[in-house]
């Protein structure tokens, strides 16, 4: 390994240390991902705020400029997004305020101007106010967030790492002290021959080389550095009082800048920083080129697949869909056309599609004659109408190239991008649907939905049934007994949501009912309805001196709803129902996804007196870890383990769960008990409670004889 000497700190010390680890130099804390959004249009601020929050940003909205300067001083944001013409009357108050905010700041605050004005005057005003970027309206939200992501990456990046190569000792210590004063992390390599080992260890942002090395030609050393694949764009700076063969070195293109050894500290820092920034801009432009189709300027296949995977994280009210648009034929009265004419049509198609998509959509060119649109926040019916409009628009347009009128037709396949599928599968589904559309194009059908989309359209119909059921009081609760294996007579019931099946000939399964409710905007209403009905049912039993306890299932959306807890406390206050009668039941997957929300929710309900059950508990380490994090009262074993309890691995898993949970004085419930053999195995392993069809099927009445027991 090379001898990498940690550069001395700015203040002299009595000793120096040579070590293999990087120096523990204090670095500035990365700023919060806080964004200030200044815009009068409430619909735009709502949409942009939602998109930003889904990407991990904190957003503070201002509809006027009055409080902005004070807040910037108190809590500086990562960036400001602001409308150029914020005030009526066409004045330039917003850019003036931005310019005043920038005064006396050690580093300019990134400002993204947005405006419906595309003229040069507005752009100049924004530029004079030190605007970081300028975005036209209607706003391309994806492009804006990409710029913010790049900004965040720079803000969260570690301090610059500088590797100084000097076997003379003439410059190393001097430049190390200068660069450390501005929080750069500096390492010194005394033996240039060990550069190949030093580079991966140091991972430098820039290499500073003494041009008059004793044991090696500096120019050859720089050439070797640039020949390494991972260092090909690494900036290199030479330092020497008298640099020999300066023109030759510059012409070789392996050195980015030069220092004479006599510069002031500020000039040294400026030279180093400028070289690094130039290299980063070059790399950013290079990466952008890698993401773009050279002919149309649209995103390419590589970028599309990457963004499709990221799209899974989006929280949208409608399913994500993929439109696969294939240009079927290019013709001019039956004549063959040249490649250049073909390219002209493709370029014109790209322009047309770019005008049709929303700012939230993603448009890409997949290959020679295929374009893809990732559609965001459209219902399935709207997606179909959107595709049909595109197909008609392309079919009706005429492109004139070299005095020849070119016509085009297209076929469009629509695929559904589901959480359980990957990006490749979503594209394949859309491609298959497009192929079907091409086959059927002779009959006039140019747009085809994949089977998964057709199934989803039926779900939309069923969602309307749920809306209707909630409005017309056609939902009801079913109760399934949770019975003690050891003869305790306390009554426990699982509360299950049901819907009267006469609304739909095929009915809606309970699991489908919950899934569809979670996909719609009704889940919060439904959760509250279930809680209210449960409290009412409990009140009726307690008025008859019957002590009952209910496991109430709660959605992830309700866990994160800040209005639920005050409403819950109000609903229980003054009632004859003790709070411990209500046990909130949440699956392990949702708890892990919303751990902070769960902790807050639990602390609140525990203070009220309610209890908590963790459902779908398995033997994974991360699941057991939740027992150390959360003060749960009951653990419900994952149903698949109980259903297949006769399998050795499942039985061992259940035994481990029961023993671990009991060591923490919590109670274990086994659901889905369906036969006597399963009950016997659970009893032998000391489970506390069971539920399932072997005990009793769910019903709309609470009529199990707990005194009789199993």
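Sequence proposed for the structure above (710 residues):
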């Amino acid at each position: 390994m090379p001898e990498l000497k940690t550069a001395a700190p700015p203040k002299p010390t009595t000793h120096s240390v040579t070590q293999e680890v990087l120096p523990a130099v204090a670095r500035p804390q990365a700023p919060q991902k806080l964004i200030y959004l200044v815009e009068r249009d409430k619909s735009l601020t709502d949409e942009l705020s939602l998109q930003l929050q889904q990407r991990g940003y904190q957003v503070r909205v201002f509809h006027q400029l009055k409080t902005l300067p004070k807040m910037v001083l108190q809590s500086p944001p990562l960036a400001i997004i602001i409308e150029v013409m914020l005030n009526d009357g066409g004045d330039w108050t917003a850019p003036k305020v931005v310019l005043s905010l920038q005064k006396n700041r050690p580093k300019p605050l990134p400002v993204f101007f947005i405006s419906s004005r595309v003229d040069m005057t507005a752009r100049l005003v924004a530029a004079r106010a030190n605007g970081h970027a300028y975005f036209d309206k209607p706003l391309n939200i994806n492009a804006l967030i990409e710029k913010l992501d790049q900004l965040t990456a720079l803000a969260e990046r570690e301090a610059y790492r500088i590797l100084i190569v000097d076997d003379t000792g003439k410059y190393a210590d001097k430049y190390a002290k200068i660069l450390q004063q501005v929080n750069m992390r500096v390492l010194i390599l005394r033996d240039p021959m060990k550069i190949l080992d030093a580079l991966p260890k140091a991972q430098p942002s820039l290499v500073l080389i003494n041009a008059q090395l004793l044991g090696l030609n500096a120019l050859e050393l720089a050439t070797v550095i640039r020949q390494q694949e991972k260092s090909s764009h690494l900036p290199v700076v030479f330092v020497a009082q008298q640099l020999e063969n300066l023109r030759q070195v510059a012409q070789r293109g392996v050195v980015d800048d030069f220092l004479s050894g006599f510069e002031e500290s500020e000039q040294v820092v400026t030279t180093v920083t400028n070289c690094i920034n130039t290299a980063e801009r070059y790399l950013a432009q290079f990466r952008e080129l890698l993401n773009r189709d050279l002919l149309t300027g649209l995103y390419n296949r590589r970028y599309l697949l990457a963004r499709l995977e990221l799209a899974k994280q989006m929280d949208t009210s409608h399913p994500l869909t993929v439109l696969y648009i294939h240009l079927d034929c290019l013709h001019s009265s039956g004549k063959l056309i040249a490649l250049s004419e073909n390219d002209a049509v493709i370029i014109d198609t790209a322009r047309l599609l770019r005008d049709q998509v929303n700012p939230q959509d993603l448009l890409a060119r997949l290959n020679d004659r295929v374009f893809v649109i990732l559609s965001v926040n459209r219902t399935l019916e709207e997606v179909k109408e959107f595709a049909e409009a595109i197909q008609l628009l392309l079919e009706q347009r005429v492109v004139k190239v070299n005095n020849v009128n070119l016509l085009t037709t297209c076929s469009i396949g629509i695929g559904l991008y589901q959480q359980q599928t990957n990006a490749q599968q979503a594209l394949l589904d859309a491609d298959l649907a497009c192929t079907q559309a091409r086959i059927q194009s002779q009959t006039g059908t140019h747009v085809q939905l994949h089977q998964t989309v057709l199934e989803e359209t039926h779900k939309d119909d069923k969602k309307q049934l749920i809306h209707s059921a909630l409005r017309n009081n056609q939902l009801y609760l079913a109760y399934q007994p949770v019975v003690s294996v050891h003869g305790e007579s306390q009554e426990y019931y699982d509360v299950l949501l049901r819907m009267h099946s006469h609304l739909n000939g095929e009915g809606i399964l309970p699991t489908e009912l919950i899934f569809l409710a979670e996909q719609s905007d009704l889940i919060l209403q439904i959760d509250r309805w279930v809680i209210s009905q449960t409290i009412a049912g409990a009140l009726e039993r307690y008025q008859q001196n019957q002590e009952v306890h209910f496991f109430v299932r709660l959605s992830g959306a309700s866990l994160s709803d800040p209005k639920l807890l005050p409403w819950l406390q109000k609903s229980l206050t003054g009632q004859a129902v003790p709070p411990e009668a209500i046990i909130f039941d949440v699956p392990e997957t949702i708890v892990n996804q919303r751990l902070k929300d769960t902790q807050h929710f639990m602390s609140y309900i525990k203070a009220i007196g309610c209890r908590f059950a963790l459902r779908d508990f398995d033997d994974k380490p991360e699941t057991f870890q939740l027992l150390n994090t959360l003060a749960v009262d009951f653990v419900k074993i994952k149903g698949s383990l109980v259903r297949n309890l006769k399998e050795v691995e499942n039985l061992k898993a259940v035994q481990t769960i029961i023993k671990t949970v009991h060591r923490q004085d919590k109670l274990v419930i086994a659901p889905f008990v369906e036969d006597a053999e399963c009950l016997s195995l659970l009893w032998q392993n000391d489970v506390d409670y069971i539920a399932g069809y072997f005990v009793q099927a769910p019903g709309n009445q609470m009529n199990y004889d707990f005194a009789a027991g199993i």
